[in-house]
Amino acid sequence: MGDRRRQAGSQEGVEPRTPRVVELFAGAGGAALGLARAGWRHLACVERDPAATATLRAAGLPGIEADVRDVDWSPWAGQVDLMWASPPCQPGSVAGKRRGAFDDRDGWPWTFAAVDAVRPIWFLAENVLGWTRHEEGCRRKGARPSCVGCYWLHGVVPEVRARFPFAGWWTLDAADYGTPQRRRRIILWAGPLPLDDAPPPPTHADPADADAMARGLLPWRTIADAIGDTLHRGTCDRRACYPCDGTHGRACTEPWRIDRPSPTLTTTEEKGTRAHASGYSFNGGPDRASDAAFLVAGIRRIGWDEGLALQGFPDDWPLQGTVHDRYLQVGNAVPPQLAAAVGRAVMVAHRVLLGLRASGLDVEAVADAARRNAVAIPTTRAA
């Protein structure tokens, strides 16, 4: 990296056995908050956006304003228990052009360079489901360069498996872990011991699922739970609303949606719903939080503070920057509840690893035996 490299910090004051994490593409701190709840201690949260970095620092996190490609990782080499990364989603998102490896924003190579420099024990990466979806007509028989799904299977995943003894991925929905929003994501995991193929067990479920309710799961958290005190017609004196008289598509016609989790929150919430035209049918939606606000109460757009609540953040999370900056941070955030769930699963495995080492056992031999016998550390254990 030459002159572009920066020294990103130090380990001073970190207890030797504290599980330590370095985070890439840290955003507004949703993943950091969740990982902290799971028992991980941050050495650094690297984020190039100044406003998001200011938010991290205001929240008491070690925010480092830098491009991931410009960081000198040498102070932490061999000292990190977990690396978390949330690379830019645009190259793989179904909402974009899906150029994958041909997109200048493809952050996977930058992430692997950081892994090589830091050599963490465990690795977690969060991203959109679009990375796993193949182009129409792709037969999945080989590494088709233009197909994002092929890039994932034949590019991203093999790069991870080349660096860690075990790797895999989970598909999760943040609503199943207590976030008042349907937000499906993939979590790519890797480390020295095998984890269960099943994702961390949900804590919440659709209340219509009688079996889940009988098993003691909590009902999904809803829009009403998160922002019911603001998402109503009484707020139209201070923001744009459409009349509920049938002249603006389906405005106000589906108030029942307030008792469901929100659709996925995006960075475009600042622009508001696309459903204001008369007769608008969403063409397969609604697929954004502001669409739900339109259907519930004819509201043009949710506020950034409402978005923060729908992402599962505390009300007092200190977002910094302009209104535009805050909408971007909220739309890009990782729900803390989702990060906490996967963070706890890896924490269980990390404690098993520490126990093996403390017992003087050969960890590689144990890992080989686990591989031969298809044994994995269950994600259902409490951390």
Descriptive terms for the model:
383 residues, alpha/beta, Rossmann fold, 2 domains, seven-stranded mixed beta sheet, two-stranded parallel ribbon, 13% strand, disordered N terminus
In short:
With 383 residues, this protein is of the alpha/beta class.
Description:
There is one protein chain. Helices cover 29% and strands 13% of the residues. β6, α3 and β7 form a beta-alpha-beta unit. The protein has helices spanning 30-37, 50-58, 108-118, 148-161, 210-214, 223-227, 289-297, 304-310, 323-332, 336-358, 363-372; strands at 6-7, 20-24, 41-47, 63-65, 71-72, 82-85, 122-128, 166-173, 184-191, 204-205, 218-219. It starts with 5 loop residues before the first strand and ends in an 11-residue tail after the last helix. The model is unreliable at 1-16 (pLDDT under 50). It has two domains: 2-7 and 17-207 and 338-372, 3-Layer(aba) Sandwich (Rossmann fold), CATH 3.40.50.150; 223-332, no CATH class. The strands form three sheets. It has a seven-stranded mixed sheet, sandwiched between helices. Strands 1-5 form a two-stranded parallel ribbon. A two-stranded parallel ribbon has the order 10-11. The chain is an alpha/beta fold and 383 residues long. It contains eleven helices and eleven strands.
